[in-house]
Design brief:
The complex is a heterodimer of chains A (about 180) and B (about 775).
Chain A (H helix, E strand, L loop, with lengths): L1 E7 L2 E7 L5 H8 L18 E4 L2 E4 L12 E3 L18 H8 L9 H14 L5 H7 L11 H15 L11 H4 L9
Parallel strand pairs in A: 1-5
Antiparallel strand pairs in A: 1-2, 3-4, 3-5
Helix pairs in contact in A: 2-5
Chain B lengths: L27 H6 L14 E7 L5 E7 L1 H5 L3 E6 L23 E2 L5 E7 L2 H9 L2 E6 L6 H6 L14 E9 L2 H7 L2 E9 L11 E6 L5 E5 L4 H12 L6 E4 L15 H13 L3 E4 L2 H7 L6 E9 L5 E11 L7 H10 L10 E8 L15 H18 L3 H8 L5 E2 L5 E2 L4 H11 L2 H4 L7 E11 L14 E7 L5 E5 L8 H13 L6 E5 L16 H28 L6 E4 L2 E4 L2 E7 H12 L3 E6 L19 E12 L6 E11 L6 H20 L29 E7 L16 H4 L1 H13 L10 H17 L8
Parallel strand pairs in B: 1-12, 10-11, 14-15, 20-21, 27-28
Antiparallel strand pairs in B: 1-5, 2-4, 2-6, 3-5, 7-15, 8-13, 9-10, 9-12, 13-14, 16-17, 18-26, 19-20, 19-25, 22-23, 23-24, 26-27
Helix pairs in contact in B: 6-7, 10-19, 14-15, 15-16
The chains are: A alpha+beta (about 180), B alpha+beta (about 775).
Chain lengths: ~180, ~775
């Protein structure tokens, strides 16, 4: 058992954890950050993906101790900090995933959205091949990936237009994705 | 509501406001932010963690179990074995052959033997190692043919004293005469390997017994109602002392539609320990739980006229059921009953036998029981087209059954958009220019299929509604809908919200949906057989229209106008003929509440009497059938045997797309799953009964890099009885993807792949055989 000083979603957290505990175990069991999912617990599915200094890692294969000194971002920390407007503000990736039908069962999507965010952190105009490559470590069993890729492309286009962070759910208009070709 | 009260297809207030338009899901934001809670995300104070001891033998008698050392381990609070939960159960009430933990014998490697609840998982796992089980190993069956031929030892005791799980033999018309009279007869052997669901969320269940003895179970299940019934029986606890809740669920695909061992174990352990108990299965255990697609060995014979019109179909199918019945009775029927469209043929016979083997139990996977025969039959149709030199799409067109018809086995077809599906894939894929014309190693293939939108077979016989909805209205304008349906990611709760919002003129942010909670929601039979949109959608319309009638009537009185002038739309009530006269729906509800007291409504759906007049004639009898057609384009690497699926076009007749985004998602997900199981996936055990690789690496799922370009094409035939004309979309679009792929490979390189999966070694062997055959007897179009 060790006491770890971690930085999770911008918060300094002090956590006591067994030496063999993974970051996923610490996130889910010690910190209550259950948005990171356990699908296989052996690095095959990608559902536990979190960001280490903006880069995707599999938290189920990462010892909690090795997160010390890194900025860890989980799905709970993907949305920007509230602006004080009292309106929810989400990351453009989250909004696009919601608009494009990418969230069926949603279980793999925290990891998927973080992988997508990591891609956009380093590549503002990814090609479809680059999107496929960046998401290839995240298994999804529902969507056939089509609407996920559409969602990433939609997020890219909206960010380029300086838009995409709106998550308003205030009525029918808020529930209607813009008709920008996202529906097949 | 009875099906005779037809809803018609019209929007309740002129144009549709919500139905048919792209919408977000009502749980979309929760899933986007990671705040949706799945079963393993739930924690209760004092919660214990449970693990399962599993059999290391494929078939063995249990001589003795000693749990004393495990019980004595510090941190262990409860240990149970088969004697604690001896009552057998099974999702089909006629075949209760499972127990929560093995009683007397084990039937596959991975069968559940004992369960331990401890302060944490590590302690529970250590306790499992301390349980001593003495086994007497029995002969195990890994080959279904051996299980068919050999009776001793039996895997289950049955009246016949053999290893047959179920046999169904049905004849329609004079099959032998049709074959004798037909100029063209094609016979062939086909086989479908096993595949599994591999939902990304493993099974998980959590139970709590409160101070009054009320048991609550949270479980990743797609059939809350059947779990409720099974728990009551196995725990010998009155059903009103049990509450079953399905939290958000991480995929299911049929793999969570049986009651599972862990649900009974956590409940019993919670009763014994007095503490909440959770069990999360490891990925490996999910592979043992399985209930995936049955391997089938299929012999098909097809008789036809020279113009390609089918005269008869004769099928013999051997189904490898694995170790328990699960839905096997239905699977056996479905293997024959669901083949009788989208084509019209006058005679049909099938003889299907499901046998037990000592492998993980098979069950319903997306396209239950019918994906395998569809593969065989559609490949055989392609062989017929080849033999008669008829374009395969044209051949299918000539045999298309059409709307308002009856199938050879007596099933009623109402709406049918199959011809339109064929046309759409033909045009979208540029079929006419591509077929036989893409050059070396490249080709296109087509196939068609049909699937049910639920059936009138309610699993346990009863005449109560198959789907129910309750609506509660708050004076704020919030409308809460209680839906028994299990939202397994397909969006059934969203569908319910779209329907109620459309009918009551609300905006979606005014809707709340409470789903799949047996204390709070009316009974729905569950998310299986693609029944939810059709049945629950109709129930939601039924309830909404009762409520709307009250509100519209009250407003008409309030305004002193005729009811036809009152419109409820976009969260407002208005007078069509006086634009000055309008109010919010919250105010409208308040006016109606003054007249009618507390507002609410219930709605339900039951199928009409359907099906053929023979034993089993109602199994597969659906109030509406969906139709699909696929064109697949492939490139085959003749050096490596690798198949590269370039693009798949799938046209699916879903009746009416209530939300086209969700329908496209179902089509794309189905196509992906079908293509992947044809190319990569193989759920199998070795000759010792050991699973070949129970992990998501050894059982390879397709990634973004493996998945082809998928074009979903929505066809709307507007079913006369579906909600706004809707039918199913979740399972049908998987079926014909697989035979279309085989047919495309034939177009590309001239090998006829009749046995799945199409792995590179299989392709290379077929190519070699074709070369050998071509050299020996060079005749164009010869098969591998």
């Amino acid at each position: 058992m060790r006491v770890l000083q971690l930085e999770i979603n911008g918060d300094a957290r002090e956590v006591a954890a067994h030496d063999h505990w993974t970051l996923l175990e610490v996130l889910r069991y010690s910190l209550g950050l259950v948005g990171s999912k356990q699908g296989c617990d052996k690095g095959d599915c990608g559902s536990c993906t979190v960001l280490f200094d903006g880069k995707p890692v599999l938290s189920c294969l990462t010892l909690a101790g090795s997160a010390v000194g890194h900025q860890v971002t989980t799905i709970e920390g993907l949305a920007p900090k509230p602006t004080g407007t009292l309106q929810p503000v989400l990351d453009p990736v989250q909004v696009a995933f919601n608009d494009c039908g990418a969230l069926q069962c949603g279980f793999c999507q925290p990891g998927m959205m973080l992988s997508a965010r990591a891609l956009l952190n380093t590549n503002a105009e990814p090609s479809r091949e680059e999107i496929h490559q960046a998401l290839s470590g995240n298994l999804c069993r529902c969507t056939g990936y089509t609407q996920i890729v559409q969602a990433v492309e939609t997020a890219v286009a909206r960010i380029a237009q300086g838009d995409g962070a709106s998550a308003s759910n205030d009525g029918a208009a808020g529930h209607s994705p813009p008709d920008d070709g996202v529906s097949a | 509501m009875s099906a005779r009260d037809q809803h018609g297809l019209a929007a309740p207030h002129g144009d549709f406001q919500i139905i048919g338009k792209p919408q977000r899901k009502i749980d979309g934001a929760a899933k986007a932010t990671g705040s949706a809670l799945y079963t393993d995300d739930l924690t209760l104070p004092g919660m214990l963690h449970a693990k399962t001891l599993r059999s290391p033998h494929p078939h063995a008698r249990i001589v003795s179990i000693d749990t004393s050392a495990a019980q004595a381990l510090p941190g262990v609070h409860g240990v149970i074995t088969g004697k604690d939960l001896p009552t057998p159960y099974g999702v089909i009430p006629w075949t209760p052959d499972e127990t929560a933990l093995a009683v007397g014998k084990v039937r596959f490697i991975g069968d559940e033997v004992a369960a331990v609840a401890a302060v944490d998982e590590d302690t529970a796992l250590r306790a499992l190692e301390l349980i001593q089980v003495e086994y007497e190993v029995l002969h195990s069956y890994q080959d279904p043919k051996e299980a068919l031929e050999r009776d001793e030892p039996t895997i289950h005791q049955n009246k016949r004293g053999n290893n047959v799980s179920k046999r169904v033999k049905l004849d329609f018309g004079e099959v032998d005469q049709a074959f004798e009279a037909s100029p063209v007869v094609i016979k062939g052997d086909y086989s479908f390997h096993g595949s599994t669901h591999a939902a990304i969320e493993p099974h998980c269940a959590l139970a709590q017994v409160d101070g009054d003895g009320l048991l609550t179970l949270w479980s990743a299940t797609q059939i809350t109602h059947y779990v409720h019934r099974a728990l009551s029986s196995v725990l010998d606890l009155a059903p009103h002392r049990i509450r079953v809740i399905q939290p958000a669920i991480g995929g299911a695909f049929g793999g969570k539609s049986d009651p599972f061992s862990l649900e009974f174990c956590v409940a019993k352990l919670a009763q014994i320990t007095g503490r909440p108990v959770k069990m999360l299965w490891a990925r490996e255990e999910v592979f043992y739980a399985h209930r995936g697609r049955h391997p089938m060995e299929m012999q098909y014979s097809l008789a036809a006229n020279e113009d390609g019109k089918i005269q008869g179909v004769d099928a013999r199918i051997l189904i490898d059921g694995g170790s328990y019945s699960s839905f096997g009775l239905v699977t056996t029927y479905y293997s024959g009953q669901l083949l009788t469209g989208p084509y019209d043929f006058p005679t049909y016979r099938f003889d299907s036998t499901r046998v037990f083997t000592n492998k993980p139990p098979c069950g319903p996977k997306r396209g239950h029981g019918s994906v395998q025969p569809r593969f065989a039959f559609e490949v055989q149709l392609d062989e017929l087209a080849e033999k008669l030199s008829i374009d395969p799409i044209e051949l299918r067109r000539r045999n298309s059954i059409g709307p308002q018809t009856k199938t050879v086995n007596g099933q009623r077809i109402t709406s049918c958009g199959f011809d339109e599906c064929l046309l759409q894939v033909e045009e979208a894929s540029d079929w006419k220019n591509k077929r036989q014309n893409l050059g070396s190693g490249k080709g296109v293939g087509v196939a068609g299929s049909m699937y049910i939108s639920g059936t009138n077979y309610p699993i346990y016989p009863n005449e109560m509604p198959q789907a129910g909805i309750q609506i509660k209205v708050d004076r704020s304008g919030v409308v809460t809908v209680f839906s028994g349906a299990n939202d397994i990611g397909q969006g059934s709760s969203s569908m319910v919200a779209y329907v109620v919002a459309e009918e009551l003129g609300l905006t979606l942010d005014m809707l709340r949906v409470v789903a799949a909670d047996t204390d709070l929601c009316p009974v729905d039979l569950g998310a299986y057989s693609s029944r939810v949109t059709f049945m629950v959608g109709n129930a939601a319309i039924d309830a909404s229209r009762k409520l709307r009638k009250l509100v519209v009537g009250s407003l008409a009185k309030h305004w002193d106008v005729e009811e036809r002038r009152v419109r409820l739309v976009k969260g407002e009530a208005l007078d069509l003929e006086d634009p000055e006269r309008h109010m919010t729906m919250a105010e409208a509800f308040q006016i109606a509440e003054v007249e009618h007291d507390t507002l609410g409504a219930t709605g339900s759906y039951n199928t009409p009497t359907l099906g053929g007049d023979y034993r089993g004639g109602s199994i597969g009898a659906s109030p509406a059938y969906s139709f699909s057609a696929h064109v697949v384009e492939v490139e085959v690497d003749e050096e490596t045997g690798r198949i590269d699926v370039q693009e798949v076009w799938c046209a699916h007749d879903c009746g009416k797309a209530l939300n086209p985004i969700l329908v496209s998602g179902q089509i794309e997900g189905s196509v992906y799953m079908g293509i992947a199981e044809a190319l990569y996936e193989h759920h199998r055990t070795n000759r010792f009964g050991l699973h070949s690789g129970p992990s998501l690496l050894d059982y390879p799922l397709a990634t973004t890099l493996d998945t082809p370009e998928i074009k979903s094409l929505i066809v709307e035939s507007n079913d006369p009885e579906g909600p706004y004309g809707a039918k199913e979309a979740g399972e049908g679009p998987l079926h014909s993807a697989i035979p279309a792929l085989s047919n495309a490979i034939f177009d590309a390189v001239g090998i006829r792949l009749r046995h799945l999966p199409f792995t590179p070694d299989v392709v290379l062997r077929a190519l070699r055989e074709k070369r050998t055959n071509d050299n020996q007897a060079p005749s164009p179009g010869s098969d591998a």
